[in-house]
Fold this protein.
Amino acid sequence: MGTPHQGGNGVQLGRILVNAASVFVPADDGLLKHLERDSEWLLQQLGQYGPISGDFATKFAYEKYKTPIALGKKIMVMPRASAVVLGQADAEPIAIHANHKNMVKFTSKQDVGYITILETLQIMMKDTEVSIRARWEAERRVENARANATQFSLGFSLSEVNNVHHFVARDEELAQLQQILTTSHERRTVVIHALGGIGKTQLAIAFAKQNYKSFSAVFWMNATDKETLKQSFTRAADRILRERSPLAYLEGAIANDDTDEIVKDVGRWLSESGNNQWLVIFDNYNHPSFGDNVGRQHSQHDNSIISKDYDIRPFFPKTHQGAIIITTRSATVKLGKTMQLSKLRRIKDSLKISESTSNRLQLVKDPAAIHLTQELDGLPLALATAGAYLDQVAISCAEYLELYKDSWGRLQESSPQLLSYEDRAMYSTWNISFQNVEKQNKSSAMLLKLWAYFDRDDLWYGLLCSAEGLAPPWLDVLRDKLTFMESIRLLCDHGLVEVNTVIGENEAEYPGYSVHACVHAWMIDVLHTKTDTNMVQLAATCVASLIPNKDDHEYWRLQRRLLQHADRCSEIMADSTGIPDLVQWIYDSFGYLYMEQDRFEVAEVMFERALKQQDKTLGPEDISTLDTAHRLGLTYFHQSRLREAEAIYKRVLQRYEKLLGPDHAKTLDMVNNLGVVYLDQDRFREAEQMFERASKGYQVAFGYDNRFTLNVVTNMGSVYLCQGRLDEAEKICKRALRGWETTLGSNHISTLNAVNFLGKVYASQGRLGEAEILCERALQGLENALGLSHTLTLDTIHGLAHVYDIQGRVNKAETMYKRALGGREVSEPATGGANLLALKILEKLGNLYERTDKPELAEKVYLQVYDGYVAVFGDDSERARSVQNRLEDMALCQTRP
């Protein structure tokens, strides 16, 4: 009511009165100085009020009439301009038809001023109840948040992602994200959708950095593909345990390196009651799939390798709480509120990026810089690349603009397929940077061109050193580590390459480098007008030459690191023609890598391509051709195509015996593998004969403690186990285990597989406690080495489930049997066969359902098993007849009264 928020006109009158009074008594005009128009004190008060004005309903009352003063004069003591603070939230001016002296003195209830104030107060009182209740609820949420903070809060970290040091612009988008994601504890999901290079990831980073205090924990998840996302969940689990231990369920999953279980358990932690203030960012979900074909492999006749498409929804916590951000280039992702991220609209925002990356100030005063940012059309990645170039090269923005226009023109001529303005803008800036790199360091430029034929992520020094004797001079120079570091640093300085911030266990010695997906597309589309078959061969040679075999220490780690580069090379080789000479051994090496990773259909494609060329160039009787045929037979075996495997094994064995002799190592390998086929076909006598022959030959050639001898001895133990000769099985298995531990150590895959097999023997002997301990040891090691989906891991889970089943722990056994299936399809539509391991697991699961009085489930499972056994062995096989008899017995039981 008549308060001088902006300073009052009555101040001068007050000062006159103070001066007059000071003649008689001490007087101070300090307060009056504060009430002067635009005084520092008032500005401070208004500055403090502005940000919190939205928390209050404020009415600014001012007088309409002048107030009489001495000598018959009148002044407007508190006009509207003094009383009302403009632009504040939830504020309203009220005019009182009185002077300053009488504005709160009403003659009656009918006074216009009284009625105005009364009506205003009545409205405010009506809103008070709702307002107070809302504030009480807000206070309660704050108290709950404080209580939960101790239990669920984690330190803020974005160590998994590369981010710019000076994020600029996107104020509106940041405010929108804040409004959606920080105003509730219920599930809030925002999908940030845009073209590549627009800044989706950097926007998510900036939001997290600005608002992390609003969340109890922030998790960054790399959603490029399913396996990469699982690795991010594993790192999230490690963070949770480091700061919030103990959590028994999460500790168990991490100890077993069970990535699927880790995903579930992190989701369980995020779903706990009261844990509703977290933020999870799923970055680069660019391959969505919400249909029925999630995760399936392509046919072996399909040129593509493995689809990256997957459904992200199973990775969301189950409880409807917390906040989720998804960044994607796909417009089909409709999992929450969609934010379409456009190019930067304001020229000043583009200039800020240019200034930040070029380290040049006041570009706003440079007409050429303004023109350049207009040409780059608000594309952050292009602006950053241009800025990085200007930081490295002493030229003006006008000179760079001329380079850009020249690059644009040449790009239109050389790459007419680039239809969008955005692609041309970004590609033109990268062309300019590439030309400067080429002038400074030829090897750096050639490395960037070669990178088009590797995967965009995790290129490292050791990968380029592997093509010894086949490398061109420019690559041979990079074999010197210091030269490599200088060359890669030049690319980083130009904003084309980034150092990976997350270093895996197998990357500590040689950390990797990556390029943005858009930069990689430019390498492919522009640096190569057509496929450079020499570079394809060179990249494939680098990968193939580095693929380790089972004799190498922890070979599986390097295999997994190479896999994405093999995928990239394979895709290129499938589309390229005229690749000379070395392709056959490259295909063969890639086939071996894929077979080791249980990707048998892709391995089959590789071996078939190699075999086709070898038949033409070397002939069907050449040893190299026969070796490839042998490995092709292995892919048939692992796909449970036993008849095809047997036929090719017999053909190769016959030729090995003729060309190499009956005791040669290759011949003995073929004998052993043929015995394994007989073992899976329940032809135990023939299998035993094969294993005995191979064992004698290996011991003569290599001695006992050799992996070839130990492997066949273990296979012999399998025959004894299947025949019920348990004491012999135990004896021979223990011998093999001691040999593996001596030669390869206790954590090697072969050793762990022997541990699992001994657990099976103990289970058959009824020594269930010892069996459980051995199976759990094997499972922990194999999951750590190979992952959850590998055949050896799944077989170990199968063995542990069988132990639980015998112990009568029905629920746990059922869970483990289902885990052992690993999400695999029982039927293999591409081959017409079936997965034999899955059939064995399903048969035991059906038996469990039958024993626990669940006939409908048992029947459903048995029908699947019967169809599978018919596909693998034929309808007259003993296995198929056994399952058919069970189905008939169950039908009889159900028809009895």
In short: The longest helix spans residues 112-152.
